[in-house]
Amino acid sequence: MAASAGHLRPGRYLALFALIVIVLYALVFLTGNHKPTPKLGIDLQGGTRVTLTARTPDGGQPTRESLNQARQIIERRVNGIGVSGTEVLLDGTNVVITVPGEQGDQAKNLGKTAKLGFRKVVANATQPVVPPQTAPPATTPPTSGAPKSSTPPPSGAPSATSGAPSTKNGGGGAPGAALAQQQTTTPAAPSSSTTPPASTPAPAPSDGSVDAQTAQEIQAAKAVRQNPQLIGADGQPNQELVAKAMASLTCAPNAKDPLEGNDDPKLPLVACGDHDTYKYLLEPEFLPGTEIADSTSGYDQQRGQWVVNLSFKSDGTKTWADFTSKNQGQQAAFVLDTQVVSAPNIQVAILDGNTQITGKFTQSEAKDLSDILKYGSLPLSFSSSDATTVSATLGLASLQAGLIAGGIGLLVVFVYCLFYYRLLGVLTILSLALSGALVFAVLILLGRWIGYTLDLAGIAGLIIAIGITADSFVIYFERLKDEIREGRTFRSAVPRGWVRARRTILASDGVSFLAAAILYVIAVGDVQGFAFTLGMSTVLDLVVVYLVTHPLVAMVSTSKNEFLSNPRHLGLGAVQQVGSQRKKSTSVGRANVKEA
Fold it and tell me: Per DSSP, what are the bridge partners of residue 99?
């Protein structure tokens, strides 16, 4: 800044501020949806809050690293599906997803584990499966079971193939033999080698992440449906163990699988088929879903259904090419969270890694699956999502009360400034109004550009920032009084007072901004919103003080209008009298010294 008011050229600073305001409001009204309103948070406009509780197979406490990784993946899913204004926070072992507005339905699928793996199909059967001990004699046709290999599969079976032309066989047909029918003719192995190990009760959870009963259910299901002896060394299924495993499995549409997200990819698996009545015996996973590079959904005109298209990373492409080359005519199951979503026949080797998951998908189901696979599978499984609708009534009532309190506070500040500073108080009110206009435009644009949503905590930060802005004016005006008290005129006091006041203003705003920045980094949720608006308003305070308040005061000090430049009308009359007396006393003292 210049050392004198004459060198300041305040008109340039005011013109620069006017240009900034014009540009901001041009962006507000000419871009986006043209609505001059900021985006509101869930507490002001209502919305949905989804709470996901992490669980582990043994009931132990999930690691902080896995919880953070799950939170980051869910955030990527949020960004990928375009749900704006959503917050994903950790609350102990819970992941809390907060969605403002009417987009809550999209958030309910965000916590899906999406643990995709590729396994080879050993055998399949239609449900229900009759255990060996209740099966009819070999000479009697079985009452239930899978169709023979020459019989077409049920209409609900997934369609063929992965990245290859469709075949006549459905996903549930050969090469897996009709397991239930084989059970009536194949003798059971000795009980000493075929009896599955007894399930061991899981220890009680250490942190409440999953109750003891759920942990025991996971262990019991794993002992039966992931028994290493389900498939013998010769690659053939152990009929007795497989029948028991399939009999223990319920494939109802809404049945909850305790192994969802907790299955061991290194062990065989007995699983349900999605959208059909098939149960599958699967080999250990040969290709994990983490090898997926990209995923898209689309409508297949040839099959007349919605599909999910996958492409693999380099290692995944090689593994998939090797498998499809060696297993032509066999089935590969695409297993998502322990459910077989598709089990097509491999007709040709797929060397480029471009693969297609088919099934009875709706358009939304195909898109949801594609988005979930694209943005990564969660490292933890979560209990079923509980979505709670949050009403905006309480938030709006709190907002109304806060605005009333803030309005009363501003009114008191205005009255005080007018009484104590008079015309300088008018400049304070004008500067606060311009600062508010600047903040309002920035909030609208941030809502459009980065999805920032204004909530009650953010409004609290804005109200506190008003005090910081007013404090900057007080520092400047009090420094002017100090200069006039020393005997200077108002015109000469302005540049000298500004040089000294701006150091204090910078130090004060610097401390406030640093505190807001630290709070934003270490805090979460609503506290972050408070810190963000506080820091942003502090920066804008400097813009207003430098480009508006000081230039206006400088213009008044150089004005030829006696009313504007009169110190009495500026609340400086009393200090001017003190300065005149001090100046007079100093002059008399110097005269006496000179005479002596």
Answer: 48
